[in-house]
């Protein structure tokens, strides 16, 4: 029998796997946090399944999300990415990946790690929202507004409150698994 999951992930096996193995599980390592940040910025205005379907292509195209490499991408690499049909070929989003890699490293310099910086907003612990249904899950919160504003101040791009809340969900800063979801019952 299929376990009960959050309703948003029932469309495909890839979605279910992501839901079961990644979404809402706390992430504290900088490389993974950066990967999710880049993927979330590319998702802006699109569905998450679109990004998941292209995730492996993104990994290859963006040097496995090596922010040290991405921060120094030359114009030729940006042009190459703009021709890559395996990813989202949005010039502003591609350029923002470079900008965000640079800003990411500045945050690391200031705070010791990006993880220390981002998790300080929740005192290092996930926020457990306990939504009963998907209708109870917000798209933004005052905290995602605050983090978004701070990231923008630090030079990050495509980090609006909705993108940041999705990042918080993906990296387990918030637990928005609905009440009946098997992952909530097993956490």
Q: Would you tell me the overall average pLDDT?
A: 94
SS-derived structural category: mainly alpha
Proportion in β-strands:
under 5%
Major sheet summary line: 2 strands, parallel
Order of helices and strands: HHHHHHHEHHEH
What's the architecture in CATH terms? Orthogonal Bundle
| Sheet with most strands: strand arrangement | 1-2
Total count of strands: 2
Helicity level: 40-55%
- The number of distinct helices, counting runs of at least 4 residues, comes to 10
CATH topology (fold) name: Endonuclease III, domain 1
Low-confidence parts lasting 5 or more residues at pLDDT below 50?
A: none
CA(first)-CA(last) distance:
20 Å
Reading off the top of the CATH hierarchy, the class is best stated as Mainly Alpha
Rg calc:
16 Å
How many separate domains make up the residues?
1
- Dominant shape: globular
CATH superfamily: Hypothetical protein, domain 2
Question: How does this model look, in words?
Answer:
- The protein has a single domain, classed as Endonuclease III, domain 1 (Orthogonal Bundle).
- The chain has a two-stranded parallel ribbon with strand order 1-2.
- Helix 2 crosses helix 9 (161-170) and helix 8 (142-153) crosses helix 9.
- It starts with 12 loop residues before the first helix and ends with a helix.
- It contains ten helices and two strands.
- By secondary structure, it is mostly helical.
- It is globular.
- 55% of the residues lie in helices and 2% in strands.
- Hydrolysis of the deoxyribose N-glycosidic bond to excise 3-methyladenine from the damaged DNA polymer formed by alkylation lesions.
- This is DNA-3-methyladenine glycosylase I.
- Zn(2+) binds at residues 6, 19, 177, 181.
